[in-house]
Write a structure and sequence with these properties.
By secondary structure, the chain is α+β, with helices and mostly antiparallel strands. The protein contains 13 helices and 13 strands. The strands form 3 sheets. Strands 6-5-4-10-9-8-7 form a 7-stranded antiparallel sheet. A 3-stranded antiparallel sheet has the order 1-2-3.
Length: 403
């Protein structure tokens, strides 16, 4: 095992500016301040700002002072903690991948954050080992040492050449137009639209009523404009979010590893060993199917945040997703559909809610003469038939020599 190493002291500045340690004390500080009954005013605000900054600086300094890491031919060891010391040892054979992150502040100070993904250990134990705040050269050395199970890089001989790189996939910015069809990219702008509407409601007075009192076009025009504006915000937000995460994405095969680089503000360098990839998942949501898009993700056991770190193609044409999947995993052949009994079972289960509404609607109609519930039940039952057949269409399996 190599001697214990420390991260760069510059990480103290990053953690102080981002209030990383101080944020953990917010649930304690709020009731404490409420109990003391601090009044408002500029003096109080300045005092709180200075106090929180000093608290953040002290926490960041102590955290840096008590953190160390060491890597060797058999394991990675991380030590942390001021009063309660914690030493975590992760054997190299349990490591599933390494990711190097470069957020904006880290990039300005020449630092990186190294995330080492390990197979799940004890119950409740984090699967990640994070070494935050090392120079870029040290981050590359640590990544190479961990993935090759070496404590230090072996000096290259004169006739040694670096492993050849094979580019498997490169991001095309035109594929950002697929983003509004993916639910995960719509979540953040949808939350932003909701927060904006809540803010408008909390404004003093009655801004919406005042707006309606003005000499404006008819109400349906305003509603249509509001709907169009909301859709525009959702589309723009999803495209911007996809660009921030996937900008410059490219996937290469380097020796026995897959290397993916992505990100506009925060650059991420993810490396996965091909031998640890157990399969590939290709997902095609309803919206993506309409335009022939898809996503490919590697199935790596024990990989934290596999939905992002295991992505081989974050968003692109469906044909490229399947081509990439077949390059990494042999194709066992076409799927075998399930028998008609499976279709009947799926349809019956999907129609049950509508059938119950129909029964209730008949009883309500005969008793009170209101048949609305019956109509609703027939509609739900009809949709249940379509849903059941759709679920049956997703059933299929096959077995090849190795998959």
């Amino acid at each position: 095992m190599t001697p214990a190493r420390r991260t760069s002291p510059r990480i103290v500045l990053v953690h102080t500016v981002t209030f990383r340690q101080a944020r953990q004390l917010v649930p304690v500080l709020i009731p404490a301040l409420a109990g003391f009954g601090f009044g408002g005013g500029t003096t109080t605000i300045v005092a709180l700002a200075v106090g929180i900054t000093l608290l953040s600086l002290a926490g960041a300094g102590l955290s840096w002072w008590r953190f160390s890491y060491a890597d060797g031919p058999g394991a990675v060891v991380v030590t942390r903690g001021l009063l309660a010391r914690a030493v975590r040892t992760v054997p190299n054979d349990r490591i599933r991948g390494v990711e190097i992150e470069t957020p904006v502040l880290h990039r300005a100070l020449g630092l990186v954050r190294v995330r080492i993904d390990a197979a799940a250990g004890a119950a409740g134990e984090d699967e990640e080992v994070v070494v935050d705040g090392v120079p870029r050269a040290e981050g590359d050395r640590l990544r190479s040492a961990v993935l090759t199970h070496r404590g230090a890089p072996v000096p290259a001989a004169e006739d040694d050449v670096p492993p050849a790189e094979e580019e498997l996939f490169r991001w095309d910015n035109r594929w950002l137009l697929y983003a509004p069809l993916v639910g995960s990219y719509l979540a953040l702008p949808a939350a932003g639209v909701g927060a904006l509407s809540r803010l408008v409601e909390d404004l003093p007075g009655h801004p919406l009523e005042d707006l309606l009192d003005l000499d404006l076009p008819p109400g349906w025009v305003l509603v249509a404009g509001a709907v169009a504006g909301t859709l525009l915000l959702l589309v723009a937000g999803s495209v911007i979010g996809a660009a921030l995460v996937n900008w410059g994405f490219h996937l290469v095969r380097r020796g026995g590893s897959l290397v993916a680089v992505r990100g506009l503000l925060t650059r991420r360098h993810t490396e996965l060993e091909i031998d640890r990839i157990r399969g590939v998942s290709v997902s095609e949501g309803v919206g993506m199917r309409l335009v022939g898009a898809g996503r490919a993700t590697a199935l790596v056991t024990g990989l934290a945040d596999a939905e992002r770190r295991g992505q081989l193609l974050p968003l692109g044409p469906r044909g490229q997703a399947w081509e990439l999947a077949h390059r990494l995993v042999e194709d066992p052949g076409p799927l075998t559909g399930h028998p008609p009994a499976a279709r009947r079972r799926r349809v019956v289960r999907a129609v049950v809610p509508g059938a119950l509404l129909v029964v209730g609607g008949v009883a309500l109609g005969l008793r009170l003469g209101h048949w609305e519930l019956l109509v609703a039940g027939l509609v739900v039952a009809g949709l249940g038939v379509l849903l059941g057949r759709s679920l049956y269409g997703a059933l299929g399996h096959t077995a090849g020599p190795g998959r």
